[in-house]
Inverse folding.
């Protein structure tokens, strides 16, 4: 499986029929809930659902699945309500599309609805590539809670967002996860582009030599862009009193949408300056 740069979240369209909420479902035991549909079903010779049985789940609790299905004892059986149930289970994100619903007519004429699920491959490990500034250990702390659970695109996306927040909290605001793939054994491979500075240019310095400015700019080509470092550089540069204003840095990518590391590098990092009347 390969998600690529833009990790797409899976959305399932669900058109639920009116149903009653399920409360305190703790196990496979179906909770009887009074439902006026039972009497209606008797009069109209329709069949009602007396229980829902879940099979095939090993890691996801049955109670969690039942809460998402939203079918209660006494609901009138129909193909639509079964399809809604399958959509709800699939939308949880932990299961493959190989879902089955088998209605079984019991001796009293009611339906026992058996839903057979197949869990996604469980996450066994994570590998990280491209991280040089933040340690693998620090990043794995964010990902570790997912190990042992079935792969879920939404959960992985949320973990990746937290991973990028780890970078951002340290000033590395351009760091991005660019690729995510999985191995048959359940290992999730994550590629990170930390956002490398390709060059630094100065705009507006008509008299002051570049090398004088460069002495005060510690952010260098080849380094990972850090917002905190840039702010410190601008403060230091303004402190030379050679310029009236040192405007915000503008980061320009050569081609932000490309996947290659070279195209994700910062092609220019212009710093806009307004000289004082008297400069070096």
């Amino acid at each position: 499986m390969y998600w690529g740069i833009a990790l797409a979240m899976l959305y399932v369209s669900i058109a639920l029929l009116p149903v009653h909420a399920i409360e305190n479902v703790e196990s496979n035991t179906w909770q009887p809930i009074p439902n006026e549909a039972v009497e209606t079903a008797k009069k109209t010779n329709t069949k009602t659902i007396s229980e829902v049985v879940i099979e095939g789940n090993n890691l996801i609790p049955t109670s969690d699945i039942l809460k998402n299905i939203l079918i209660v004892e006494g609901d009138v059986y129909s193909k639509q309500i079964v399809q809604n149930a399958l959509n709800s289970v699939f939308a949880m994100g932990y299961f493959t599309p190989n879902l089955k619903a088998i209605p079984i007519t019991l001796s009293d004429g009611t339906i026992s609805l058996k839903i057979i699920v197949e869990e996604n491959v469980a996450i066994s490990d994570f590998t990280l590539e491209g991280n040089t500034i933040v340690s693998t250990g620090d990043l794995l702390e964010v990902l570790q809670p997912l190990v042992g659970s079935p792969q879920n695109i939404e959960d992985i996306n949320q973990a990746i967002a937290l991973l990028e927040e780890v970078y951002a909290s340290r000033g590395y605001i351009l760091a991005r996860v660019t690729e995510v793939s999985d191995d048959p054994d359940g290992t999730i491979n994550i590629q990170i582009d930390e956002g490398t500075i390709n060059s630094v240019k100065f705009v507006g310095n008509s008299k002051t030599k570049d090398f004088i400015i460069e002495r005060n700019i510690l952010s260098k080509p080849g380094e990972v862009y850090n917002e905190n470092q840039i702010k410190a550089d601008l403060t230091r540069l303004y402190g030379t009193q050679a310029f009236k204003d040192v405007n915000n840095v503008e980061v320009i990518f050569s081609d932000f949408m490309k996947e290659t590391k070279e195209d994700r590098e910062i092609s220019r990092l212009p710093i806009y300056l307004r000289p004082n009347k008297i400069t070096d």
Notes: The longest strand covers residues 49-55. DSSP finds eight helices and eleven strands in the chain. The chain has a mean pLDDT of 76.
